[in-house]
Write a structure and sequence with these properties.
The chain has about 70 residues and is mainly α. It has one domain (about 10-70). It has helices at about 10-20, 40-50, 60-70. The radius of gyration is 11 Å and the shape is globular. The model has no long low-confidence stretch (mean pLDDT about 85).
Length: about 70
């Protein structure tokens, strides 16, 4: 899996990994098609940041979920 290249599968994988890491209960219905391919690099950056940390503060979780919301297609 090459996460440097956009695909619906990569988007879904990264979102699922972010969800697991943040222990998010919501977002189960978000699919790769819900994200704008033009913003893929932003999602990848967010994924890399989340993957690199072991713990998150409440404010960090709020900021990350806010950014995920911004990446969704309108």
């Amino acid at each position: 899996m090459d996460l440097n290249v956009w695909s619906e599968e990569n988007v879904e994988f990264m979102f699922e990994e972010i969800k697991k890491k943040l222990r998010m209960a919501t977002g189960g219905s978000i699919k790769g098609t819900n994200f704008d391919p033009a913003l893929y690099e932003d999602l990848k950056d967010l994924y890399d940041m989340v993957a690199s940390k072991s713990t998150f503060s409440i404010s960090e979780i709020d900021a990350i979920t806010s950014e995920l919301g911004k990446l969704r297609k309108a």
